[in-house]
Write a structure and sequence with these properties.
The chain is mostly helical and 186 residues long. It has a domain at 20-45. It contains three helices and no strands. The chain has helices spanning 21-45, 54-121, 126-180. It starts with 20 loop residues before the first helix and ends in a 6-residue tail after the last helix.
Length: 186
């Protein structure tokens, strides 16, 4: 007879059984497993004494969780920044394209109007208006490129001259300091 609330002193194999030996062995194995489980449950139910290093392990586990969360947040932030840069880059590119198209179309309309006006002045000769307008545009472009190139070369030369004058002055100061001491200046 099995009582509730307490474990019985009698073993399961001592109880009378009228089945086969395999069924008896299986029932005995189940009973022993149940007894081991009950003993393990009683052991788990006992308050156990904590080791002195266990709070450190708990704190380390908390720090590891925080670090994992931080790394994940930084990764998400980096992805968000990359997406934002990509979207802004695409918007900038399409904005530039739209600006160039608008400028080109405005230039076309302006030149077409000038060409039409010159054609009317020359007695309704559109070819002459187109020719004169094209020549004026190409001449203006040639002047702008020539002026820009000269200015670029002049600025570049001035920067190189300033760089070498600075180097010469530093070298003269170093030479004077070697001759006359640290207090000498050129």
């Amino acid at each position: 007879m099995v009582s509730t609330g307490r474990t019985s002193e009698r073993r399961f194999s001592d109880l009378p059984f009228t089945g086969s030996s395999e069924a008896q062995a299986d029932a005995q194995a189940r009973a022993e497993a149940a007894a081991r489980e009950a003993a393990a449950a009683q052991e788990r139910a006992k308050p156990r004494e904590r080791e002195p290093y266990e709070p450190l392990l708990d704190a380390a586990a908390d720090w590891a969780a925080y670090a994992s969360h931080y790394v994940g947040a930084q990764s998400d932030l980096l992805k968000m920044k990359f997406r934002r840069m990509l979207v802004l880059g695409i918007a900038w590119l399409f904005g530039r394209i739209a600006l160039y198209v608008a400028i080109g179309y405005a230039m076309f309309l302006t030149l077409h109007g000038i060409s039409g006006g010159i054609a009317e002045l020359l007695g309704n000769r559109p070819w002459a208006g187109n020719l004169i307008t094209g020549a004026i545009c190409l001449g203006g472009l040639a002047l702008a490129v020539s002026w820009g190139t000269k200015k670029f070369v002049r600025l570049n030369r001035e920067q190189i001259e300033a760089h070498y004058q600075h180097r010469r002055k530093v070298k003269e100061t170093a030479t004077a300091n070697e001759r006359f001491g640290d207090g000498a200046h050129v």
